[in-house]
Amino acid sequence: MNNNQMPAGDILGASLPHISGNFGNIFHTDNYDHYRSAVEETLDLVGTFLHRNDKPFSGIEAKEMKGMVQQIDLNQKLSSYQELLEEVDTIYVKHATAFHLPQYVAHLNCPIVIPALAGEILVSAINSSQDTYDQSAGGTFMERKLIDWTAEQIGYGTDSDGVFTAGGSQSNLMGLVMMRDCFSQKRYNHNIKLDGLPAEAGRFRIFVSDKSHFSNLKNASIMGLGEKCIVKVPTDERFCMDITLLKKYMKREEQLGNIPIGIVATAGTTDFGNVDPLEDIANIAEHHNIWMHVDAAYGCALLLSEKYRHLLNGIERADSVTIDYHKSFFQPISSSAFIVKNKRELRILKHHADYLNPAEMDEEEIPAQINKSIIQSTRRFDALKLWFTLRMMGKDQLAEYTDTVIDLTKDVASMIAENPHFELLSDTDLSVLVFRYIRSDVGDLNALNQYIKMKLFYSGEVLVASTKVDGNFYLKFTFLNPITTTEDVHQILNKIKAHGEDFGTAN
Ligand SMILES: *Cc1c(COP(=O)(O)O)cnc(C)c1O
Description:
There is one protein chain. The chain contains 15 helices and twelve strands. About 40% of the residues are buried. About 40% of the residues lie in helices and about 15% in strands. By secondary structure, the protein is an alpha/beta fold. The protein has a domain of about 270 residues: Aspartate Aminotransferase, domain 2, CATH 3.40.640.10. The strands form two sheets. A seven-stranded mixed beta sheet has the order 2-8-7-6-5-3-4, sandwiched between helices. α1 packs parallel to α3, α6 packs across α8 and α14 crosses α15. Bound molecules: pyridoxal-5'-phosphate. The site of pyridoxal-5'-phosphate has 16 residues, from α6.
């Protein structure tokens, strides 16, 4: 039966003879059994993923992976979930990176918590869209409550507001857009949203540290300011923004005729996990009467920790903050937020679409989160995952996980520092350690450490990241898993050492 042949049925939907056959795939009351069995079979594959993997990566090469995916004919459908799951297992699950294993210490991919995964089932099945009240109802207010809760952790007052976003890069974009538009509005009474960039925009300058996230550059370029508007201030010996140099660079830009419009402080750099001096930066921003944005995509974890919260002192003085729950709150991707101190300033982003949030709609009575969103219209109810998490675990358990990870990192830092085979480059406020393996008989330490990283990657036993500092290649551990023990890391270091000893003999 196709659509045209469908009997009209009861207009109230009481006895529509839908379902089965062609329409059995639609998520609907009558197809709940199908939904449930499809999800259960898929869950078995999750179980396989968990039980099978004892290393974070299979070690497969991209070329082989590509071939496996490419040979599939998408125009030939499969006949059962069993076939589908076998296919997806072969080309995806078997080789997927297992972030939950202690041997995964590479990038900022946290292990995720079970309450959030339970929430995810509702997020995808009910499929609310967070842009307007009529597409989300309670979801709008739950998101707002979580935004308010996050703002409270930051130390903001009741004037704050914000919105969930797809990630830290997008939240940072919102921070820079608000910085730029508020500056232009206040300084020149020029409305960028309506009139485009003012003549002065070519001379706008935004100050970041040279260890800040690259999204600042990308964002500046899509904002029409060009990467040139980003001034990278050198960092001190702990890789935090050097305040003396910040002042110097600001003065230098002014002398060149350029116009400082704001400062981005990084609370937890991706490479070193260190927090820029927030109080000092707040003082300088205040003095110049310019916007301060804090990129706490990673460092937001500290907000919940009694033990380490002091490292974020001053964050409450920022005009806006980026939070990545999918980096530091053990949330599945995506889950992120942009928070502003003063909700009146968020209005600068507001756009009225007659079909969604017409101007005459009373914001208090019928709220619409789309008013605060910079590019997303249809938007997932990611906030529900955080709701599940907070309600089941409480803030204290999240904080405990974070404290455990930071404490582990401190132990590992001592372990590396005391080991004559290793050189530790820096300590960390959070949980990243940058180091390298050294051998007195090897001159090219870059080649040595690149070799180790490559060997580890293709063995799949341990995944570490790397970075370059002053042109030199270093290995990098990012710890985010509270399950990881010093014994696990001890074994990882032994593997690194073993490959390091092989260098020059085996290759
Ligand atoms: C990861 C990261 C970002 C970008 O966040 P996404 O969620 O990956 O878009 C921004 N800033 C810092 C410091 C980060 O570590």
